[in-house]
Amino acid sequence: MSFRLVAWYLLIVGSLFFATGCSGAQETDSTAYVLALGIDKGEQDGMIKYTCQVALPKPSTKEGGEEESKTQVSVTATARSLAEARNLINSSMSRTLTFSHMKALIIGEDLAKEGVNDIFAPLMRFRDMRGSIYILVANGVSAADFMDKNKPKLESFMSRYYESMMFSSNESGYYFRTTLQDFYKELKNVGDCPLATLVSLNGKKKGEDGEGSMFPSEVSPEYTAGNSPLEKGNPAEAMGLAVFSGDKMVGTLTNEEARMLNILRGTFKHGFYVITDPLVPEKFVNLTMRLNGKPHIKIEQMDGQIHIKVEVNVETEITAIPSGTNYEQGEYNQLLENHISQLLQAQILKMLHKTQEWGCDAVGFGVHMRPFFATHQEFMQLDWPPMYRQAEFDISVNTIVRRTGLMQQTVGKIE
């Protein structure tokens, strides 16, 4: 018995010598943390240009009498794979690159249109890559140019900028957050359509119009990133969505179309909504809008034809009525609610018809086809894109003016 106790004692004590440290540990003084990674199409076939935005350990000193505090630096390498590019960059740096704290993956538009499957598969397998990395597509500019010219005015670190920018989508619904895990999951699932936030550098010239067609009841033109009427400040902006069919980008959605997509997905939080005044068209009505529960989606199949019924419930709050019409009460209130419902219905149908042309189910209606199949294997054989192209939509929007701000009745009522 004593021999066994001694043997166990020696075994336990001896095992402690093998648990004294971690062979894969990295010192912070020898590590370069990548905050964002840009991927562009290379000049040669099969070559990819990788741009790493690396955090500096401390702000740089004053140079030339000007105080310029840099907190990151960009390094670019052209290679066939990220692993090869990482080795090339490591050969010119005194620290080892690590992607464990990376916040954003920015893909150039040209590369996105050719296909990103060969890029995403290695990223999902790489241990350093987190599934929470945000996926962005540079619209009209290269990912490298977007990263170099992106100069936030309110944030010192780019990691903080990317996080704040993505969460700001809750205030408008003009785009929404897509992570590496979400994108790859939608890339593999039947009927799903991968999406990514559209970013660009503002290069809109004075006098240029917005994108997309406007309804008579709309006040503001529609825009995508790089075309909004912004001046001064940071030229970088996020607006709209990049839509993929499989691993290839096939088109973009404007800010209003992205908002309608958010509404149908049930991810719209709240935001301002500006429409024309129903009784005084030259004026406008300003509202804050939010969903009153997630949309109700029902799919019916009759003689091979897909019918998609969607019921959307919206509640609004009046924030401005320049015409002075008393939309807070009575028949005027009902008129405004119907006006909002009709405009939302038209905007939703416009967005859906646009995605039908691409054969891309951006909303994810295909998931609701699962009850029609007995097994998962049968569902995986579903050829959904052609069915979605021919689908018929029945969109119903119910609007309630829930609140009227700090005024119960508008001054200067028009009869």
UniProtKB/TrEMBL annotation:
Give me the ranges of the annotated region Disordered. Answer: 207-231
Q: What is the membrane topology listed in the Swiss-Prot or TrEMBL record?
A: Lipid-anchor
Q: Which GO terms describe its cellular component?
A: membrane
Signal peptide (UniProt feature, chain positions): 1-25
Enumerate the UniProt keywords alphabetically.
Answer: Germination, Lipoprotein, Membrane, Palmitate, Signal
Organism superkingdom: Bacteria
Asked if Signal is a keyword of the record, the answer is yes
Q: Which InterPro entries match?
A: GerAC_N, Spore_GerAC-like, Spore_GerAC-like_C, Spore_GerAC_C_sf
Family classification: Belongs to the GerABKC lipoprotein family.
Instruction: Please identify the protein, giving its name as recorded.
Output: Spore germination B3/ GerAC like, C-terminal
